[in-house]
Write a structure and sequence with these properties.
mainly beta, single chain, 51% strand
Length: 72
C-alpha cells in the first residue's frame, strides 16, 4: 500500500496512468505494463525536473490499478 505522503491514483484497466512528481508536483503519464506482474517498482526520471522517482504500480485481480511515486 502507498506510504504516508505518497501520491496515489486509482483507475480500472487503463493502459496509461499518471502520478505526481514528489519533487516538482507535475503530473506525469506512464504506460501500464500488465504483463510485468501485480506489484511493480522501478525508478523513472521526471520528464519536467529530471529528478528520479520510485514508481509503484499495483494491479488488483480485477484489473484495477494503483500508481504512486516517491522521490528517490
Amino acid at each position: 500500500m502507498p506510504q504516508s505522503g505518497a501520491h496515489d491514483r486509482i483507475a480500472s484497466m487503463n493502459e496509461e496512468e499518471s502520478y505526481t512528481c514528489d519533487a516538482c508536483g507535475e503530473e506525469i503519464i506512464i504506460p501500464i505494463d500488465f504483463s510485468a506482474g501485480a506489484d511493480q517498482e522501478y525508478v523513472e526520471d521526471c520528464l519536467v525536473c529530471c529528478r528520479p522517482n520510485i514508481i509503484h504500480v499495483e494491479i488488483a485481480e480485477n484489473g484495477q490499478t494503483s500508481v504512486w511515486a516517491k522521490t528517490e
